[in-house]
Amino acid sequence: MQSRVRFHDQQTAEVAGSLHEELLAGLNATPKFTSPKFFYDRRGSELFDAICEQPEYYPTRTEESILRAAAAEIAEVVGRDATLIELGSGASRKIRLLLEALQPACYLGVDISRDFLLDSTRRLARDYPWLEVHAACADFSRPMAWPQGLSGERPVAFFPGSSIGNFTPEEAEAFLAGLHDLLPAGGGLLIGVDLIKEREILDAAYNDAAGVTAAFNLNLLERLRREFEAELEPASFRHRAFYNECDSRIEMHLVSLRDQAIRVAGESVEFEEGESLHTESSYKYSIDGFAELAGCAGFARRAHWTDRDGLFCIQYLESLA
Predict the structure, then answer these.
(1) Is the residue at 38 inside a domain?
(2) Assigned domain for 233 exists
(3) Which of 106, 130, 281, 283 has the fewest Cβ atoms within 10 angstroms?
C-alpha cells in the first residue's frame, strides 16, 4: 500500500556541509563539545527510545502520564482543527496520547533522522487513517519554515520530552523567539519542561544500571566513524553524566581514557587523558522560571499541568502579536 505521508526533505547538501563545519568547530573548541543533534542517527534514535524504557529515566513516563490525564483539558485549551507540528518527533509516541482528543486537521512530524522519521510517520498514518500526515526532515535548531500544503486553522507546535533543556537558557530564548516568528498571533506551543529536583533522581536518570544511556552517548563516536570519516576507537572513551547544581543542568561527557589523536573529516583532533567531549546539557527549570523565559521570547503561558510529585511540567504557551 502506498504511504499517505507527504514527505518534505529540508536537509539539503548545503545543510549537510554546515553540519560538518559545526561538528569540527565544536571539536576544536576549548572545552570540546558537540550538539545533541549528532546523537540522532537511526541507531541513536533507537537507543534513546530504549533509554525512555529504563526504570531510572522518569521524564518520559511522567510526561506521558500528564498527557494521558490532561488530554481533555489540553484539547479544550488548544482547540480542534489545528495544524499540529511535533518538533523532534522521534517515534511519534507521545502525540498518540493527544490525537483523539485534539482531532487536528493535520499532523507534521519534524526530525533530523530521516529513516526513523519516515518509519514513525508511516505507522502513524496507518493507525490514524483520518489524519493528514506530513513529515519534514529538518534540523529544527536552525532557522526553518513550515512546509507548504499544511491544512488546518492555525499552527500549534508540540515540543515534548524536555528537549528545550538541551539549549542554554540564552539559546532557549532565541529558539523560542524563532518559533514565535513562525507562529501567527494566537498560535500555540505545547512544551514539556523538566523541573529542578533532587540530585539523586537526576544522576540516576542519566546513569541507568543497564548502561543504555552510556551506549547512547558512545554511539556518537560510532556515528562519527560511519558518517563523518572519523578515525577513532570508541573503547578509548567512557561515558560520564552528572548534575551541575550551580547551573541547574545535567551534563553528559565522553571522557578520553588516554592521550590520543582522532581524525574527523580529514582533520586531527588531540585529546589528553581525562579530557572530555561535552555531548549534551539538559537544563532544569522551575515552572514560573520557564514561563518567564518564554515571556521574553513573545509567549504568554495560558495553562500548565504537572505530576503530583512535581517532577515534570507541560505548559501551553500562546504566541503574542
Answers:
(1) no
(2) no
(3) 130
CATH number at residue 166: 3.40.50.150
pTM of this structure: 0.91
Supply the DSSP string of 100-150, one letter for each residue.
HHH--SEEEEEES-HHHHHHHHHHHHHH-TTSEEEEEE--TTS---PPTT-
Query: 124 and 109 in contact (C-beta within 8 Å)?
Result: yes
**Interaxial angle between packed helices 287-296 and 169-182, expressed in degrees from 0 to 180 and rounded to the nearest 10:** 60
Q: Is residue 168 part of a domain?
A: yes
Domain span holding position 158: 55-198+285-319
Per residue in 159-204, pLDDT (tens digit) is 998 999 999 999 999 999 999 999 999 999 999 999 999 999 999 9
DSSP 2-35: ----EEEE---HHHHHHHHHHHHHHHTSSSEE--
Question: Bridge-partner residues for 158, per DSSP?
Answer: 86, 190
State how many domains the chain has.
Answer: 1
Name the nearest CA neighbour of 106 among 11, 4, 177: 4
* pLDDT digits 0-9 by tens, 225-249: 999 889 999 999 999 999 999 999 9
